[in-house]
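REVIEWER CHECKLIST
Item 1: Sequence provided? yes
Item 2: Single chain? yes
Item 3: Sequence as submitted:
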Amino acid sequence: MTELDLSDVVFSGTPLTDGPIGTSERLVIMGQSEDVETALRAVCAKTEVCALAGEATASDTLIRYAKHQLRALTGSRAAVRPGLEHVRLAARFFGITVDGRRAEELDPAARARLRLAVTIAAALTQNTPWLALNRPFDGIPARARAGIRGRLLDALDHFELGAVFALDSAVDAGIIGGRTVVLELDQVADAGDFGQQLRTPRSNLAADLAGVNVFSGLARRGWLSIGHSQVRAKTELDGKVFVTIPTGAVRLSFDEFSPIFDGEAVFEALVVGLHDKDSKVQVTLSPSDTEVGLALQADLFDFSAEAADNSELPWGVLHPDLGADIAQQSTAVRPGTRLWVEVDTEQMRAYPVEDASPTAVMSAKE
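Item 4: Structure as written out by the authors:
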């Protein structure tokens, strides 16, 4: 087995991996697109790595596509004939026959299976033990995705190939397993088991998937603080920490003195954006005064089935102070709207920078 050393692929002084990884391991790269693309280009530049085959055009026959990609990936016309034998061998794992049909006759799932089979064939042809797979499951219908993932993992194990994946999906990352590196702002924001990253978010990606805001904070003299903000809580921790605030742990009103607020850290914020997040609509809030408030993502509407079953309010409404129903609130809350905000500090969590165990912080009211 050939190890892959990516310690020379560096982001702001931090290597992509601390040392070589073996072909029995898998590496997943996630995060901001430009950073992920930069990392993957560096991986593909390694002589022991084969890149993902290009997509087939509609007019390509399957056999012509395979020949063209074998030439492109191996850089050799002479590799085409032996490569086609590897194509037929790899294609069996993906349940596809490479013949004279046109690519336009295949559905998206079959095209993806063809692409992966040709990629593996090119690696086998040039005796390249590693694949660099850039979002290999994009465009595959959800019902077919699980099956193709399974076929790919079986093929990697059978042919003893290692793989570096660039992925956007937490489900894909979870199934692929191995080590996950998250890149943000030209930095390695986090690395390791992806499930652990979601339990103790350190990156914006993990925070988004976990449904929380994440901040760097400081625990000192029994208090947890985030920058200069007055949003704080009591804690038994000490030193540098990460702090999470769930997107649902925010109360919103047009009235600074609304009875829904029960703490001292009520702050004014500007709505700078709205976006869909699963079954919810969220607002992006920017504090008018950073000495008081925090920049947050907060749930505005919730259209989940659970919300429909349990809410005494009109379906979707989370903040009755903003209007009687969704229509009123949709009209009233737009980019540029000013709101008053309070964080439910009882839902804040903190954990030491060097630790992986989240710790509930105590409410500032206690």
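Item 5: Key structural point noted by reviewer: Residues 109 and 140 are 5 Å apart (CA to CA).
Item 6: Recommendation: ____
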